[in-house]
Amino acid sequence: MFYKQPSPAEVLTAHGRPTQDALPQCFTVCVWNWQKCKQKKWTEDFKKLASTADLFLAQEVRGTKAVKAVMDKAPYHWTGAVSFFSLKGQNPIGVATGCTVKPIRAVFSAEQREPVLRVPKMTLATLLPVQSYPHPLLVINIHAINFTGLKPFEQNLQRAAELLRDFNGPVLIGGDFNSWNIKRRRLLQGMSKTAGLTEITFEPDCRTRFWGRPVDYLFVRGLKVLTAGVRVTDASDHNPLLARLQIR
After folding, report:
1. Measuring CA to CA, which residue among 75, 80, 36, 71 is closest to residue 52?
2. Cα–Cα nearest to 178, from 237, 117, 93
3. What does the alpha-carbon distance between residue 114 and residue 222 come to, in Å, rounded to a whole number?
4. Closest by CA position to 23, among listed 131, 104, 102
5. In terms of pTM, does the model score above 0.85?
6. For all residues of the chain together, what is the average pLDDT?
7. What does the pLDDT look like over 29-47, one tens digit per residue?
8. What domains appear along the chain, each with residue ranges and CATH number?
C-alpha cells in the first residue's frame, strides 16, 4: 500500500450542522469534483456555489483543517466517506455529501480499487428527509473507478444500482463516473435505463471532458428537472453541475 487505508470506523465522517429539519420538495443540487482543493480559487468558487445549493455532492475532497473550516461555514451537515489518507499530512481524501438537513442514514461501498496504488473508489448513499412527503430522498454520490478495464467499472456501477433497487422513493445519483470512452458510456447508459433513471442534460453542455467525453453526470428518478446548467471554472479540473429539481 502506498497510502494509508482508513479502518472501518474511520470511513464514514460527519461534521457541520444542518440549517433545516427537512429538505424542501423543490431544491438545488450541485455536483463537483474538487481536484483535492488544489487550485487557489477553490474556496471562492465553493462559497458561491454553496450559497445557491441545498445539496452538494463533492468528489476528491481533501479534508485538511483549512478545507474543513471552509466547508463548515457553509449551511450544510456533511457526510463523508474516506477512501485513503494522503502521504503528505495524512489528510483524509474521498467523497462528501453536504446538505441543509441531516441524513436519516448513510452507507458506503468501496469494493473496487484502482490498480497499482490499490486506492478504493467510494460510493456514498444518504437518505434525506423531505418536507411534507412520505418518502425520503435517496442520494448517491459516486466517484467511479478509473484506470481499469470494463469489468471493474461495470461492477462499480452495479453496486451503485443495488443501493436503489428496492427503494420506492425519489432518487438522485451524481458524481464523477470516469466514463471517458464509448464502452464505459454504454455501460453507464445501460445501468441508468435498468434502474429507471433519467439522465439530466445540459445545454450548452460545458461539462469537463476527458478524451472528448464528459465524465460528470446527474441522474434522477421521481424528480422533475426545472433547470440545469454547468458553471465553467478554473478552480478545479472539473466544471460543477447545477440543477433545480422538484419531487414529483
Report:
1. 75
2. 237
3. 33
4. 131
5. yes
6. 90
7. 999 999 999 999 999 999 9
8. 8-247 (3.60.10.10)
* Sole residue written with cell 463523508: 80
- CA angle 193/195/198 to nearest 5° reads 55
One-letter amino acid for residue 65 of the chain = K
Which among 220, 236, 202 is positioned nearest to 27, based on CA atoms? 220
Is-contact 126 169, C-beta < 8 A?
no
Q: φ and ψ at 172, to 5 degrees?
A: -135, 125
> Which has the closest alpha carbon to 215: 173, 185, 242?
185
Burial bucket for residue 140 (CB in 10 Å: 0-12, 13-18, 19+): buried
Strand partners, 221: 171
